[in-house]
Amino acid sequence: MNLSQGTLRWLAGALFLGALGAAAWRTPQPAALTFAPPPEARQQQLPTLFLAQNLPSTAAAPRHASLTELPDGRLAAAWLAGDDDNAGIWFSTFGRDGWRAARRIASRESTAGGTFAWSSRTARPLLHAEGSWLHLWYASHNPLGGILLNHSQSTDGGASWYKPSRLPTSPLAGSGGEPGGPPLLLADGGLLLPLAREFMTARGEWLRLAATGEVIAKQRLPAAAPASIALDAQQALAVLRAAGQDQLAGSQDGGQTWQNIAALPGLAPAAPLALRRLHSGKLLLAGQTPSGTLTLWLSDDTGLTWRVSRTLEQATDATADLAEPALLQGRDARIHLLYHGPAQQLRHAVFSEAWLNGEAP
Amino acid sequence: MNLPAAYGLLAHAVIFAALFALIPFGEFRTRAVLTASITALLAGIAPFLHGVFGPPSLTLLQLAILQIAGRTPSPLSYRAALGLLVFSLVFYPLALGWGPFDPYALGYQPLALLAALLPLGGLLFWRRQSLWLLILGVDLAGYAGGLFANLWDALLDPLLLLLALAVIVRRWRASGSVTR
C-alpha cells in the first residue's frame, strides 16, 4: 500500500498528538514530597541488654551488610561476599533459633538472566521490608566497570526472589549509583532510595519510588550523603560528606535545601557510618574513629551535640575498614547492629537503649 | 518476562543488524542482516551492548529499522545530527552530575517536556517532516505504554549521540575532500 505524502503527514500528525496525549495521561503526578512521620518518641522499657555473635560464614570477605525487620519480627540481612566476578549477595534471617544458614540470592549470572544484559559483578545491597514485600536493591557492574542499580523482591520472607530488573537512574548506562543507606518512607506509601554516585562528582541522590515501585522522581543532594533520616513530614537530617569531612545537615523542606547543623564527632575520614532515630527520639550514630575503634554516639538534641555512648571493637590495624555498620531498632525496641568484625566476619550485636545509656548488663 | 529488558536486548540485535545493512551485500543483503541479528543474540553481542549502553532509545531503533528497510536518505541528516549533538553537549554533562540542575530528572514527570515537544511537533508538521513526526510519535507511545520510566530514555541515548557524531564527521570529511 502506497500512502501519499499528504496522507502520511496527517497520519503522523495524528499519531504524534495521540501519543502526546497518552504520554501526558500516563505521567505520574505524585503529591508533594512528604515523609512518613516517625512514631512519637516513647520511653524505653527494655532492661540493660547486650549480646553479640557472628553471622553464618559465607564466601570470603563479607561486607556492605544491610538489615531489615520482617513483619513477623524476624530480622533479615543481606550482604556482599566473594571476590570480583564471584561476588554475590547473601541472605539470612534471624529468629528465635538464631541465624539461619546463609544462601546466595543474587549473582552476576542471576543479574544477567533477569536484565538480559551482560553483568560483570554484583555490588552493594540494600534490603527493605515493606508489609509482605521484601525488597532488595543492589548495584552491579557492567562490562566497562560502570555501576547499575537493580531491584528484586520476595513475597515469602526471602525464600524465593523475583528476577531482578534494572532501575533507570541515569541517561548513561553505568553512571548510576549504589544504594547509599536505608530508604526514607514517604506518606504516600512510596520511598526515597538514597544513592551514592561517584561518576564525575561524588554526590548523593534520592530516587523517589512510587508505592508501585516505579521510579517517579530524582533529586540531588549537595554532596555525598552516607546516611539520611526523616524527623517529621518535612524535616530530614543527612550526613553530608565533602572532602572527607562529615557534617550533619538539616532540611526543612523535604530535602530541597540543606543547612549545616553540626560537625559530627570524631569519625575517621570517609568512614562508613550508620544513623538511626531511636524510639526514644534520640539519634544513634555508629562509625569508626581514626584509631580504628567501632564507636556508638548518642545525641539527645537532634544532632546538635553528640556524646560517646559505647565502643565495641578495636581493629588490629587502624587503617582496616572495621565497621561498615548497619543499624536497626526492632518493634520490640531491641537495637541491632551489623558490622564487619576484625576476623573478616560479619558480627551481630543486639542491645537495648539502657545499655547505650551506660548501664551494665 | 521483563518487558523493558527484552526490548533492550532485541533492539540491540536490530541495531547491530542495521550496521551490517550499511555493507553492500547486494542480493544477499536480507540474509546478511538476518544472520547479523541472530548472531548478535546468540553470540552475546546484544547482551554485551545492552550491558554497556543500556536500552537504546526508540529513536535509534526506528532509525535502525529504516536503515534495514533500505529507506534512504536517513532522516538523521547533517542538520538534525548537528542539532542533536549540540543539545547533547548541554544535556549529558548536566544530567551526569555537572552542577545542581539535573535535566534527566525532568523525564520522570515529563509534563514540561511534553509541553515543549508540542511546538516541535507543530514545526515538524509545518515543515512536512512526516518521518520525524512519526519517530517522535512512536517515542511518545513507547513512554505512554510503560516501556520507559523516563521520557528521555525513549528519545535519546549515547549510541544515538555517537551516530549523530558519525554523520557530522562524515559530512565534514566529504566537504573537506570536495574543497581539496
Task: Sum up the structure in keywords.
heterodimer, A: 361 residues, mainly beta, five-stranded antiparallel β-sheet, 3 helices, B: 180 residues, mainly alpha, 9 helices, 71% helix, globular
Brief summary of the model shown:
Chain A is mostly beta strands and 361 residues long.
Low-confidence segments of chain B: none
Please bin the fraction of helical residues of chain B. over 70%
**SS content category of chain B:** mainly alpha
**Most strands sheet of chain B:** none
Shape of chain A: globular
Number of self-contained structural domains of chain B: 2
Structural class of chain A: mainly beta
Radius of gyration of chain A: 22 Å
Task: Give the amount of beta strand of chain A, in percent.
Answer: 35-45%
Tally the helices of chain A. Answer: 3
Main sheet properties of chain A: 5 strands, antiparallel
Helical amount of chain A = under 10%
User: C-alpha Rg of chain B, in Å?
Assistant: 17 Å
